[in-house]
Amino acid sequence: MIVTLKAISKTCASVLAAGLAVLATTSAGAQTSAVPSANNPFGLPQDFTIYGSDNPNERSATAVVNGYVITGTDIDQRVALVTQSQTDVSEQEIQRLRMQVLRNLIDETLKIQAAEALDMKVEQDAVLQTYRQLAAQNFGQNPEAMDDYLLSIGSSPDALKRQIEGELAWERLLRRNITPFVNVSAEEVNDVLARLEASRGTEEYRLGEIYMNATAENREAVLQNMQQIMEQLQAGGSFVAYARQFSQATTSVVGGDTGFLRLETLPQPMADAARQMQPGQLVGPIEIPGGFTIVYLIDRRQVLTADPRDAVLNLKQISITFPEDVTEAEANAKIDELGTFLQSLRSCADADNARSVLGATVVSNDQIQARQLPEQLQNIVLNLQVGQTTPPFGSPQDGVRVLMLCGRDDPEDAGAPTFQSVMNTLEEERINKRAQRYLRDLRNDAYIEYN
Q1: What is the pLDDT of residues 306-328, one digit of tens each?
Q2: For domain 308-409, which CATH number applies: 2.30.29.30, 3.10.50.40, 2.40.30.200, 1.20.1250.20?
Q3: Taking the model in full, what pTM does it have?
Q4: How far is CA 52 from CA 12, 23, 49, 59, in A?
């Protein structure tokens, strides 16, 4: 990569000239330069003086990438996308995010420019279509509502559209320059299917991942960066947002979601960590071959086995509320009254009587999956027989409720994945590895000027 910096100021130049003048009067025997070696390839001296600022981050975080200008506003608006769910972000963390976002914007620009150079420019209609799909998912078919939201958090529609353009450009580049040259044989697919059948009943995991490449030279810097990301996630940062902005795995496009996979397919340190995790738990950074990863366990299930949590339930919820000034004794008496009423129930039809007997609210839902319930309720409900209820749960502040099981449709046994789905997974893994090398080549060939 060719990198140029702005000219040294007159003040720094005079300081440097004075330093050189002093050095010129030093005898050759007094010089402290080391001999290049495996541990010191540049022959850097052990004792030296830094002239000027020793903090490269004090420069304004902007750049020109092959003639395209990345402004401070671009960076601010992209940082706002990352921190949208956080209310208290330190100035130090903001500065770190700005530098990371700048690197991401540089990569994004290189992807867009590479696509344009190969006559694969992403049309604005394609960008708008994806933008509208995101609006439909989050704002009910109302792009204007998403526009207003982005502006309210300090970002902009153009910032998100630029990110979409970069992702679409990268997809096109991979389809043309990488995917056609990735081959997976039928024997490899059949071998995976045989291993899956042999592992029927064992667990597979759905993970979120944030991955960063690391080399021996930048290992400590990358580790520190990942530790700071971990701190922000633990403070309430959006895992999906951080994965989309910072992860260098191909899963970054889908917010780091790996889909379901077997631990045998993961690097050993990552597999060992996932095996000990519970859904909703976050672990990292974990050092794996090639870099570091942060892992979030989304879900887990058994290979080729029906998951009971996929059962579709017909439930009735009976809930009672309490006045704000209710005493503990009054609340306990009301809960006891609810318990007595539950003992009198003979069928789901009787549950509706809670309205007149207790002044309760009764709500029915006949299309809810067990996995949609809070985890601590899932096993309780799945062990119920039709007509039975859960124990009362809740609090005087939030209300106390029970769930009554009125019907259940269990899932069918899960079959083996298809030949094509396994082939797609293997191809994706190989595309990911080649994509990382391709992006590295784009960086090496780029002309980047930092301001």
Answers
A1: 677 778 888 889 988 888 888 88
A2: 3.10.50.40
A3: 0.49
A4: 6, 17, 10, 12
